[in-house]
Amino acid sequence: MASAPPAGQGQQGAAAASSPLAPSEMYRNYNFLLRLDSAEVRFTECLGLGMRIEPIRYRESGVGNVVRALPGPVAYAEVVLRYGLANSPDLWNWLKRTAEGAVVRRNVTISQLDNDGATPRVNWNLYGAWPCQWSGVPFDALGREAAIEELRL
């Protein structure tokens, strides 16, 4: 239930009550860092962090009109990494080894950085990740955009 700010706080109290965090306390989505094992790798975009717990639905005997649910298997989303085409062959070699059947699993840490751009605040750890899809650069003779590749883990 919403309420008015206490008397004497004026507009400052009203602004603080309407937002859970001040703008300076919210993390920016461009401040992130990705580590493959212990090496830092730069990406322009990281999508797909997520998981889903599949519900198992059932009906109890004797109560046929009520459907109940239990937590079932956990499914993790594929993480999509987009990056500028670069000279380093490390990611390509990792993908190539996987395609040849020699799967090399690597630990990946995605860190949300503080607004200073240096201090990690929240980490997402992907243990035993391996590349499952690569998409090359879409070439366009009239385009002016950066050449961006995509890798899915």
What's the gist of this structure?
This protein is mostly beta strands.
List keywords for this structure.
153 residues, mainly beta, 4-stranded antiparallel sheet, 10 strands, extended, disordered N terminus
Care to describe what's here?
This protein has 153 residues and is mostly beta strands. The chain has two helices and ten strands, in the order H-E-E-E-E-E-E-H-E-E-E-E. The protein has helices spanning 10-18, 90-99; strands spanning 32-36, 39-41, 45-47, 51-59, 67-76, 80-84, 106-113, 120-129, 133-135, 148-152. The protein has a four-stranded antiparallel β-sheet with strand order 2-1-7-8, with no helix packed on it. A four-stranded antiparallel β-sheet has the order 3-6-10-9, with no helix packed on it. It has a two-stranded antiparallel ribbon with strand order 4-5. A hairpin with a 6-residue loop joins strand 7 (106-113) and strand 8 (120-129). The two termini are 43 Å apart. The model is unreliable at 1-17 (pLDDT under 50).
Mean pLDDT: 79
Q: Sketch the topology as an H/E string, one letter per element.
A: HEEEEEEHEEEE
Measured on Cα atoms, how large is the radius of gyration?
A: 23 Å
* Molecular shape: extended
Structural class estimated from helices and strands: mainly beta
- Please mark out the parts with pLDDT under 50 across 5 or more consecutive residues, or reply none: 1-17
